[in-house]
Every structure is written in C-alpha cells, then in structure tokens.
Amino acid sequence: MTDPTVKNLLDPGFELTLRPMRYPDFYERYRDAIKNTWTVEEVDLHSDVADLAKLSPAEQHLIGRLVAFFATGDSIVSNNLVLTLYKHINSPEARLYLSRQLFEEAVHVQFYLTLLDTYLPDPEDRTAAFAAVENIPSIREKAQFCFRWMDSVDTVDRLDDRDDRRRFLLNLICFAACIEGLFFYGAFAYVYWFRSRGLLHGLATGTNWVFRDETMHMSFAFDVVDTVRKEEPELFDPQLRDEVTEMMREAVEAELRFAHDLCGEGLPGMNTSSMREYLQCVADQRLTRLGFPPVYGSENPFSFMELQGVQELTNFFERRPSAYQLAVEGTVSLDEDF
Ligand SMILES: [Fe+2]
Ligand SMILES: [Fe+2]
Q1: Which of 40, 145, 146, 224 has the fewest CB atoms within 10 Å, counting from its CB?
Q2: Which fold has domain 47-308?
Q3: 201 known member of a binding site
Q4: 246 belongs to an annotated ligand binding site
C-alpha cells in the first residue's frame, strides 16, 4: 500500500510499492551487488601464517592492532545499517540494496573472524583482540566516535522535521565518509603496504573484495545524499557543511592516533606522517564528493594505493568467470578511489 503523503526519500514510513519505481538506480545497485558475491572460503590464508613468523616485532605489533580493529569494525556498521539506515530511507528498492549490504557486512565480519582465528592461535591473544574496543585506547576512541553518531539518532523514531533529517544525514554521512570511507581506507593502506612487500597475500585477497564492497556501500550512501539534496536542498546549508567538515577532521585525528599506535616511531615505507597525508587526501575526496570544499590539500604519498583500483580489477579478472566481469565493468569507479 502506498502512503500518499510520501513524496521524498526521507519522508517517514515503510513504503512498499515497487511499481512505478521511484528510484530505479537503487534497484540497479542491488542487482549489481549480487553479481559480486564472494565467500570467505575462497580466501586462502595459509601462506599468511608463514609470513607472520617472518615479521619484525614492530610489524607484528602493527598487524596485531590492525586485526583487533577488524574484529569489531564491520559489526558496528551492520548495527547502524539496521538501526538507522534501513529504518529511515523510505524506498523499498533502496531497502533491497541495504539488505544486500547487510549480507556483505556479514561476510566481512565472517572474514575477519576467520582471519583472527588464523592469525591469533593463542586463545588469550584472540580474546584480547576481540575485546579491543574496551581495552586498546586507539581502537576504543574510534569505536566511541561511531557510537556517538549512532547515539545522536537513537531517539529519532520518525524524520518528521528538518532537525530530525539533519541528524539522520549526519549519521549517514558519518558512516559512509568517515567510517567506511576513512577508517576502513586507513586499514586498507596497511594491508596493501604489506602486499607491496610481497607479504600477507591471503589478507590482501580478502581485502580486495572487502575494498570493492565498501566502495559500493559508500557510493550508494552518497547517492542517497545526492537524492536528498535534490529533494530537500534547504537541508544542505552552511551549518551542515561545517558540521560535516568538523566530523571529518575528528575522524582524521582519531585515525591518526590509531596510526601512531600502529607505527610507533615508523617502519620503512609506513609512518605517521605519510599516513597523515594519505588520510587528509582521502578526507578531501570525501568532502568533495559530498559537494563541500576540501580542507587539507594533501597529496596521496602511497604509490601502492594509487594502483589499487587497477590491481583490484586485474585480480578479479584473473580469478573470476565471465559472469562476474559484467558487474566489474559497470560498477567500479576508479576516480573515487586510489
Ligand atoms: Fe564491511
Ligand atoms: Fe560497508
């Protein structure tokens, strides 16, 4: 049954009518995502175990912290997806995409569970990694950033007025631009730094597919933002711009404290100052995509990330039958990534 009062994407309700379809692009995103299905069983982590034994103590510390972040990151995103995005994006075709995204987040959670079980054979180490949001300050800080933006919409049952819609938009933008689009992109850089040195290929393989999924999650969320901007341009005022910019700055600072924890005094090719430039460059890309001015003007210092978009496609073509190539051509946007 269609509610005649529903005119815009953020109007409250649980719209059910798929024909005539109001937002066919969201439906196409759902169909494209299905073509990219992968399973954790396809990722072979065996050679990683031998590589881990070869790492220096500083590198082992870095990888230990990184997987501890992976232990909970995608579960937090999944929770917000169900509790906030699914609830308030009022289009059945968009909810189809969100259902698919939820499945992909479940695969990511399973991938990282398998990764931690493989990388951390000692039960005590494993328990400590899964409790990182409680015990490791640099990871706890990032989790608290996420929880703060989840809590900001906690009491919003319906997006009845402008203030509710702004709060929702900030939550959506936070999860897409700062969490999937910055925290996760920070994590991917460490993985590809190892890969550029011929290490941890199992992790890199799984990361290729997670990276690809996250790029699409972010892209969908930005399309939702674009749609809302078209339908309700008055929501996109200087106050929203300032709040998003401040949120992005906070995310960069939290990710930098994490970088400092991971890198310490620095490792060959990976240190806090390079990470700062990389994160600032990524943050500027997110702000620009959202239609807001960039704030840092930094360049990407990581050549191994510039190749990432191309490398990901190459790996996909090598491994996948032709059925999957259709989706790759249509959905991967190289200009949004490195
Ligand atoms: Fe994910
Ligand atoms: Fe995601």
Answers
A1: 40
A2: Ribonucleotide Reductase, subunit A (1.10.620)
A3: no
A4: no
